[in-house]
Amino acid sequence: MNSNEPREIDIAIIGGGPAGMAAGLYAARALRSTVLFEGGVLGGQIATSDRVENYPGFPDGIGGFELAMAFHQQSEHHGMETVYAMVSSLEPQEDGRFRLGTDGGGEFIAKAVIVTAGANPNKLGIPGETELTGRGVSYCATCDAAFFKNMDVAVVGGGDAAVEEAIFTTRYASKVTLIHRRDELRAQAVLQERARNAENLEFLWDTVVEEIHGSDQVTGEVEKVVLRNVKTGEQSEMPVKAVFIFIGQTPNSNLLEGLVELDAGKHACVNDWMETKVPGLFVAGDVRANAARQVVSSAGDGATAAIRADHYITDHF
Ligand code: NAP
């Protein structure tokens, strides 16, 4: 083979989070030549989670990074190969295969592609937010609320995610204050009703968080937030041990734009088998529409996509 020719593989997986690594495990165990492309850190969002307590099989929980490494080791053990590069182009070919280019200049031709590029939670962009992430600032209450048992916490946002996660957090926290920039929630009515009925959930309207302070901004934990009422301009402080932020998320779907159907939030629309409208192109995990956004559901998505991709290759090549 001429070394300048693209390398031919069966299944390309774009993104090394739980969905990608589970897809890689299933694809490799189906004896398909499988390459997973990761341009950043393996593990996706769990790589920065201090502890994961809701992934089945670990009664005492497990470190996020440790879980990510275990996923990766298992998938490679069964034959998945990892290429540490960002996929910069994805083009369907006339013969039904896909041409992928990486930022390092690598070229690949794959019979099926599974995009598991994940999503990033939107950030407030305020002082203390980045510094205290993992030490009280969190973008997943389902993952982290249990660490704040009997403590006062804040939730920021007014959409479905904020309200749903605020309700979940009331199971653990002594008091949850939902801070919203307007005086009306965006969340669906049924969630609003549930939130209003929750005993230890209070609303703080027309308010934005301007700063998050820790006992020590470098190694400490969240101690308080600085607030501003957007109508009166009045500033105040509120002591809290955690700030859960749900102001939307941005899926990493750039590669899919113009190729598959995306919803208003730019998540890819797929069917129950993770199939897009483009034959051989699958999307799984947080980058797809209507994902539950959990490690276990992402891994399930990845497995589903790989099983279907294996069948697709058998039927079409
Ligand atoms: P979302 O619906 O876009 O809501 C984002 C919220 O954050 C809005 O209330 C918005 O305020 C607020 N916000 C945005 N930027 C902000 C900023 N810089 N500072 C303060 N507040 C800010 O996002 P989401 O809640 O993540 O939901 C995303 C999608 O997933 C939605 O389609 C939702 O229906 C769906 N979802 C569904 C469920 C469910 O059905 N159980 C659960 C979770 C998510 P404004 O209201 O003022 O714009």
Could you describe the 3D structure shown?
This protein has helices at residues 18-29, 64-77, 141-144, 160-169, 189-197, 295-316; strands at 7-14, 34-37, 51-52, 62-63, 81-83, 87-92, 98-102, 107-115, 119-121, 137-138, 152-156, 175-179, 201-204, 207-214, 222-229, 235-239, 242-245, 249-251, 281-283. It is an alpha/beta fold and 317 residues long. The strands form five sheets. Strands 1, 2, 5, 6, 7, 8 and 19 form a seven-stranded mixed β-sheet that branches. The radius of gyration is 21 Å and the shape is elongated. The two termini are 21 Å apart. The chain binds NADP nicotinamide-adenine-dinucleotide phosphate.
TL;DR?
With 317 residues, the chain is an alpha/beta fold. It contains six helices and 19 strands.
Bound chemical compounds: NADP nicotinamide-adenine-dinucleotide phosphate
Q: Any idea what the CATH superfamily of the largest domain is called?
A: FAD/NAD(P)-binding domain
> What general outline do the C-alpha atoms trace?
elongated
Straight-line N-to-C gap: 21 Å
CATH architecture verdict of the largest domain: 3-Layer(bba) Sandwich
As a whole number of angstroms, the C-alpha radius of gyration is 21 Å
Helical percentage: 10-25%
Question: What is the residue-averaged pLDDT?
Answer: 95
Uncertain residue segments: none
Helices, by number, come to 6
**CATH class term of the largest domain:** Alpha Beta
Number of domains: 2
Q: Given the helix and strand composition, which structural class is it? A: alpha/beta
Largest sheet: 7 strands, mixed
Strand content: 25-35%
- Count of β-strands: 19
CATH T-level fold name of the largest domain:
FAD/NAD(P)-binding domain
Q: Give the topology string: H per helix, E per strand.
A: EHEEEHEEEEEEHEHEHEEEEEEEH
